[in-house]
Amino acid sequence: MNDVLLPAVLLAIKPDEKLLTPQNRFRMGFGKPKFPDDISATTTLAQLVGPDSWYTFHLLQLDDSFLTEPVEKWPDHPAFQTSAAHILAINVINDCAERGVKLSADFTASAKSEEHYQNVLQVVEQDRNMKSNLRKRSLEPL
């Protein structure tokens, strides 16, 4: 399935009513999304479309009228332009980078010299690599 088919796939599963909560999640409500078990390097975005894709449109208050147009015409469509502007205005946080900055800031005050600071960071990094992260399941090769 080609990602150019994404709008058709999305429109084919459009619910009759706006989704007020995510549907396909672990636990109740706003947990992490459930993804298919058979995702591989050949999986396309269109294969991952589901009801929660429409929840995203509702949550971000995006006008979906551009989806009925050919993809080539989207850049000129007012609904697409407005939706793109809303998406670009969202602040994104890189949690991994934020954790690195926090870790660095926590040990800056305790370091007596730059060399001591670098040694402390290396020990912390080595310790983090040795202990498994219990929140992540081990990834199997694709």
TrEMBL record:
This is Uncharacterized protein. It comes from Chionoecetes opilio.
